[in-house]
Design brief:
The chain has a domain at about 200-455: 3-Layer(aba) Sandwich (Rossmann fold), CATH 3.40.50.300. The protein is built from 18 helices and seven strands. The protein has helices spanning about 40-50, 50-55, 65-70, 115-120, 120-125, 175-185, 215-230, 245, 260-265, 270, 295, 305-315, 330-340, 360-370, 390-405, 415-420, 430, 435-455; strands spanning about 200-205, 235, 275, 280-285, 320-325, 345-350, 375-385. The protein has a seven-stranded mixed beta sheet, with helices on both faces. Strand 6, helix 14 and strand 7 form a beta-alpha-beta unit. Helix 12 (about 305-315) packs parallel to helix 13. The longest helix has 19 residues, at about 435-455. It is globular, with a radius of gyration of 47 Å. Bound molecules: adenosine-5'-diphosphate and magnesium ion. The site of adenosine-5'-diphosphate has 18 residues, from helix 7 and helix 16. Belongs to the ParA family. InterPro entries: AAA_dom, DNA_Partitioning_ATPase, P-loop_NTPase.
Length: about 450
């Protein structure tokens, strides 16, 4: 203290012994200190006061302080009222003096997120005791700890033995792996003969006078399946709509030599048959729109019912299978197919009305057998567009199996969107999506047909 009663300015010494005022903590600054601006201090003061002032709102909800009290606390910062008051002190008891006035005890700011951000330097000053690190090492690895006893594995001859090997059952594979395996099975990239070849050519007429039951789809997909598995196959498109030609991506616009030329103008089949791109061992005799007139023109032609049979018989090449895709009618084109074939394959759609009209087809087949082709028989029935979600599909299947017995293939073709998409890409479903259920089902149907043909000698058809 000086003689005039003044005291020296309090001096603060920094760590290096140099006097400094800047290193003084703002937390304990006097409100009038030029270093500590009101904006720095105000929130600090405001935050620590309510503990005394009983600023708790009646509802205890932040921001609902009594208006009178709020008015007294004019130094409130922007976060005023953002924090619930602590339940202490008398109600409405406002502080009577500045909290950080000289001589008052320095108020420690409460630790919350906002305060920590504002009082960064102070946070550094307050020593946080080092936290013990969590030990993640298992006790057994701690030096000196006894290792846990390990139970011996049961040996193969032990009754309690359980194999730890990964199971190799196919159904345990992920769906993608199963699909890939199915695709390889369907496409048969090695080209080996995996479907038995018949001793003699099997000529199969795919017929049903109902339209849209899957005749063309069946003819195309069975032909591709058999060709992919080592059989030589010819598809004859006998429907003026030319759907089978489209499905195999064979040109069939006006002017292309087609089956009409064979039937009406006696052009040899070999001259109109085209190879199917991408499928070795598969040929197609296309149909153009010209065929639409053939039904009428055939009426006046000699031996009009057996024009196709003669054309096939004159074909120099040998095939394992000839599939004839019939139009949805029982006219002369279908009769030509029935006379040329040994077997009839009837696709039946698993829908209502499926069996209606079948009697008429069976009657026609019987007439052809009696008068024109004694070797003809209905050898195969294939259920198509089976929708397992409906009881109707089940009922139709039962009806068909009861009526036709073992002529009905075990393989059933499900309704499958990939089957219906394939023709628009000029492909069979076998190549369009070989892993699909549609492709697998046609593959199974083809295999069944091939195996039946191998078991029962084809000579019976002769
Ligand atoms: P048809 O030759 O008897 O008139 P299609 O074979 O042309 O019958 O088939 C009729 C329609 O049904 C076609 O659009 C075809 O793509 C579709 N289709 C055939 N079979 C299936 C199936 N299994 N799943 C879904 N759609 C199919
Ligand atoms: Mg058709």
């Amino acid at each position: 203290m000086h003689d005039d009663g003044r005291y020296d300015e309090p001096r603060v010494t920094g760590p290096d012994g140099v006097s400094t005022t800047d290193s003084v903590s703002r937390e304990t600054d006097h409100p009038g200190d030029p270093v500590a601006s009101p904006s720095d201090c105000a929130p600090t003061v405001r935050r620590d006061v309510p503990a005394v002032g009983g600023a708790a709102s009646p509802t205890g909800h932040p921001g609902q302080e009594p208006a009178a009290f709020t008015g007294q606390e004019s130094t409130g910062g922007p976060d005023h009222g953002a924090e619930p008051a602590e339940p202490a002190g008398g109600r409405g008891e406002a502080p009577t003096r500045p909290v950080n006035a000289p001589g008052s005890r320095p108020v420690q700011p409460r630790r919350n997120a906002a305060a920590s951000a504002r009082f960064e330097p102070a946070t550094a000053v307050v020593a946080v005791p080092p936290q013990p690190t969590v030990r993640s090492v298992p006790d057994a690895t701690i030096a000196g700890a006894a290792p846990a006893p390990v139970a011996p594995y049961a040996q193969p001859d032990d009754p309690a033995y359980v194999s730890r090997e990964t199971p190799t059952r196919e159904e345990d594979d992920p769906p993608l792996a199963m699909e890939a395996r199915r695709a390889v099975q369907v496409l048969n990239p090695s080209g080996e003969v995996t479907m038995p070849r018949p001793e003699r050519t099997r000529i199969m007429c795919v017929a049903n006078q109902k339209g849209g039951v899957g005749k063309t789809t069946t003819a195309v997909n069975l032909a591709v399946a058999l060709a992919l598995h080592g059989n030589r196959v010819l598809v004859i498109d006998l429907d003026p709509q030319g759907n089978a030609s489209t499905g195999l991506d064979v040109p069939h616009h006006t002017g292309i030599p087609d089956v009409y030329d064979c039937l009406i103008n006696s052009v040899p089949l070999a001259e109109v048959a085209q190879t199917v791109e991408g499928i070795p061992n598969l040929w197609c005799v296309p149909a153009t729109i010209d065929l639409a007139g053939a039904e009428i023109e055939l009426v006046s032609v000699v031996a009009r019912e057996s024009r196709l049979a003669r054309a096939i018989a004159a074909y120099p090449g040998t095939f394992d299978y000839v599939f004839i895709d019939c139009p949805p009618s029982l006219g002369l084109l279908t009769v030509n197919a029935l006379v040329a074939a040994q077997e009839v394959l009837i696709p039946i759609q698993c829908e209502y009305y499926a069996l209606e009209g079948l009697n008429q087809l069976i009657n026609n087949i019987n007439l052809v057998r009696q008068h024109l082709n004694p070797a003809l028989e209905v050898s195969t029935i294939l259920l198509t567009m089976y929708d397992r979600r409906t009881r109707l599909a089940d009922a139709v299947e039962q009806d068909v199996r009861n009526h036709f017995g073992d002529k009905v293939l075990q393989a059933v073709i499900p309704r499958n969107v990939r089957v219906s998409e394939a023709p628009s890409y000029g492909q069979s479903v076998m190549t369009y999506d070989p892993g699909s259920r549609g492709a697998t089902s046609y593959f199974e149907a083809a295999q069944e047909i091939a195996e039946r043909g191998a078991k029962e000698p084809v000579s019976r058809h002769a």
